[in-house]
Amino acid sequence: MVRLLKKLAVLLLVIAGFSGAMNVANAALAIIGNPANPLEGISAADVAMIYLGKSDEFPDGRRVVAVDQYRHSPVRAEFYRKVVGMGPVEIKSYWSKLIFSGKGQPPQNVGGNEAVKRWVASHPNGLGYVDGKVLDRTVKVLLIVP
Fold first, then answer.
1. Which residues form the domain of 80?
2. Which pLDDT tens digit goes with each residue over 62-92?
3. What is the CATH number of the domain that holds 73?
4. pTM above 0.90, yes or no
5. b/e 90-127 (16+ beta carbons within 10 angstroms → b)
6. Nearest to residue 44, comparing CAs of 129, 135, 134, 115?
7. In angstroms, what CA-CA distances link 108 with 20, 127, 135?
């Protein structure tokens, strides 16, 4: 009887741990690429360089085209805060200076989670970010940002 209770306790811990991990992934931000992208992952620092216009290549040297969510998206605000280290006002000011000086253009806004996912799925060099809750097999996860 004691052995059975121990096995049951272990099973419950495993199930609880698995469901907790699923909740973390579902609540996380996902950096996504096209499923044909050969990269197995990407660092937050590399993503930040791309989204700040300081790099136009994936770490393996292939050209990258990054897209943004719409300006007032909570996912966009979270992405820039967690990955780039800037809030909405700071990132707008950053890009305004670069645009005015002719030194760069921000990533194209394509819409919300589903629009970003569709865009990345249809562009081999695409890079985007979405809420982890909308992930499916149409895109490849390159980084999870808790």
1. 29-145
2. 999 999 999 999 999 999 999 999 999 999 9
3. 3.40.190.10
4. no
5. ebeebbeeeeeeeeeebbeebebbebbbebbbebebbb
6. 129
7. 35, 11, 21
